[in-house]
Each structure stands twice: as C-alpha cells, then as structure tokens.
Amino acid sequence: MNIFNLCWLKRKVLILFSFFVILTGLIFYGGRSYAADALSLKMLIKNALKNPDITSSALKAEGRKEEIAIAKALPEPVAGIGLTDANGFNNPGIGVNGMSYIGFSISQKIPFPSKLGTKSQINKYSYMSSKAKTRALKINTAYLVKETYYNLALLEKQIIVVKYNRLLLNIILKDISQKYGTGSASAPAYIRTMLEDASLKSELFSLNKAKAELIYLLGELTGLKVSYIKSSRAELPKISEEKKGAKTGMSPKDKLNEKEDIKTAYKFNPELKSLKYLAKKSDYETAYAKESYLPDFYLKAGYGDRYSMVPILSASVGLSLPVYFNSYQKPLINKAEKDRLASIYDISWEKLRIIKNIKVYAKDMRLNKNNYRLYESLYVPEAKLLFKAETASFEVKRSSAFPLLDSFRKLIDSEFKRDTYNAKYYIDKSRLEQVMGKIQ
C-alpha cells in the first residue's frame, strides 16, 4: 500500500469516526435529561407569582375588602353648641329670661334600614371581582413564564443541533479542501460547503440572540438573576405516550374533553368569575338606586342650660324628601339598569370567547401531537437511516460529500420540526390551562 492510499485511509477512518461521534452525540442530547442543570418550571412560576404587580393587585383587593365593613357603618354624628339670648347680645339674659340659654345638641343621620346592607353588598362584590382579577393576573403571568420557558427549551435544543451540524460541516469542509487542492473536488463543491457553513453560523447567531432575549424576559418575569438562568438549562418534556388500547389518540394524562373543559372554564376562569361578580354588583347597584326614593332619618337631641332655671330639653325627627327625583333618582336608576344589562352581555361574550379558545387550543394540541408522533416515528428514523446509508456510500467513494451533507441536513430539519411541534403542543396546553383557570 503506497503512502497516498494510507493517508486517504486514515482520513476516511477519521471522517467516519467523527460522523458517528457527532450523530451519537446529537441523538444522546436529544433523548437525555440533564437533571443536575435543569431549570425548574415550577420554581420559575413560584417566583413570578411574587412579582410587585401581583402583590400590588392583591393588596388593592384586600383594601376593597375593608370597604364592606365601612359601608355598614352609620354616618358620623354631629355635635353642636349654641347661644339663644332673648334680650339681645348686648344685654344677656341667661338665668333671668326663660327664653335665653346655652344650648348643646347632637344629631345623627340614619339611612333607611335596607340601604346600608345593599351598599355593603355592592362593596362585597366589588372586592370579589378585584380578587378574581388578581387571580387572572397570576394565571396570565404563569402562562407567560410557561410560554417563555418552552420556547427557551426549544432554542437550546436547536442551538446544540446547529453546533453539531457545524462541527460535521467543518470536517467535510476540511476533506473537500484537501480534495480541491489535489484536483479531485470541484470549485462549486468547495464554495457550496463554505456557503453552508456561513449559513449555519448566521443561524446560530440568530438562535443565540433569541435565546438571550428569552433569558432576559424570564429574569424580568421571575425576578431571578440572568446569570442564574443562563447557568441552567430549560428542558422540553416529551409528549406523553399513548396508552395501549386507547381509543382517543390522547394519553390519559393529556386526554382532551372539550365539553368538560368548557364546564371547568365556566367554573374557574377568573375573567368570567370577575364579570359574574360585577353583574351581581350591578344588581345591587340597581336596587340601591331604587332605594334612593326611600327617606333617610335625621334624629336630633338638645339640651339648654339656663343657669339657675330649669334646663331645656329638645328632640326632633326629620325625613329626607326625594323632591328632585327627575334630576337624581331617575338618572341614577337608568344608569344602574344599563350597567346591569352591559354586564350580562359581557358575560355572554366571555363565554363565547372561552368556547372558541378551548376548541382552537384543543385542535392545535391534537394537530401538534399528531405531527410530533409522525416525525418521531417516521421522518426522524427515516432521516437517520438515510444518513447512515450516505455515510456508508461516502466510505467506499460511491458518492460525494453533498448527498451526505444533504442527508444530515434532512436529519437536522426533521429533528427541528419534531421539537418545534413538541414545544407548540406544550404552549397550546398552557393556553388551555390559562382559559380553564389553572396556574400549574
């Protein structure tokens, strides 16, 4: 065997060994979970639920809770002091003239008995609506964390795939460069390989940029340091396998039942609950507006000190008169009834939105799950077999590097699409949980 053939054999063995190391590493990364470096999604959500916006909303809701007791309280009483002088201020006759005295009084407004209870109910449902909105803010924040996390996990997998791809391409590039130097490879082959490498380099830059943006977004949502998030790895869970004999195409864990999901959303969706509380509030506001026709009571008691003479005692009861009903009571009732009708339409619209979202997200979940299974069971294994076949063909010089490169890119694209469908499935699942009022 001459020196040239020996060198070629060594290079061929090195190239083949590198191919299989890269492929093995790619498959190894795609299927292995790095528990030690895993970034916990539950921990991220837990931290995100402590953010200042949610804390502020919760405190505002608790502040409105105090308004329930405030509404039940009577207005503050009014105390007064006065002087009555029958002889004129220049000649006081207190103690001499029976009509002159120093008077002390106290008065109290007492609303019609049902008014305080109705106003308290208005504040109660206002508080419950605010509390439901705080819950909605928590659920929306948790969804943003989930969406960002799954997109970050997808990007991290894609970055590793591109890095392995570039490593393989560099090996092929060295081989083609040597062949080009000896005249056994054409210039277009060398140029195409260079362009492929430049394309992968640009793609890697874009992926890293997108990853950095997601890391900073996670830091903003959770309040965690960016350095901590960078040091850990977001994990993209695989779609759970279907149980044998299942008729639905869904595993028991991820089984979709749109009717049950809609019932659950009607019961637990915080946006809908908030609107229902506002509707109840409108009912009591309408009742309170109608109660404005009812009179309020004014009680007053007085004491007059005439020094040596017998003191004067007085008491009185007053009633408010709704004489300005055209400018106060009627407009107040009309406003309350319109608000009540608007709240009914708001609830109907929210229910329609819930139905539409559940149907769309459930459909997208099924579609993404089916596509994931198609790539996992068919396209990715097919691409792996093609790559192995092209590797064997390249080994015996039956084909050039281009079919090998194309087969590897097909494998990369297949795994990209499989992982993308996997991530989309969990993002849609998070959206479905958001509509159903679930945080985790």
UniProtKB/TrEMBL annotation:
The UniProt record lists the keyword Secreted: no
Localisation per UniProt entry: Cell outer membrane
Stored InterPro entries: TolC-like
Chief location of this protein within or outside the cell: membrane
Source taxon at top rank: Bacteria
Alphabetized GO MF terms: efflux transmembrane transporter activity; porin activity
GO cellular component term of the entry, any: efflux pump complex
Keywords noted in UniProt: Cell outer membrane, Membrane, Transmembrane, Transmembrane beta strand
Protein name: TolC family protein
Organism this protein belongs to: Candidatus Acidulodesulfobacterium ferriphilum
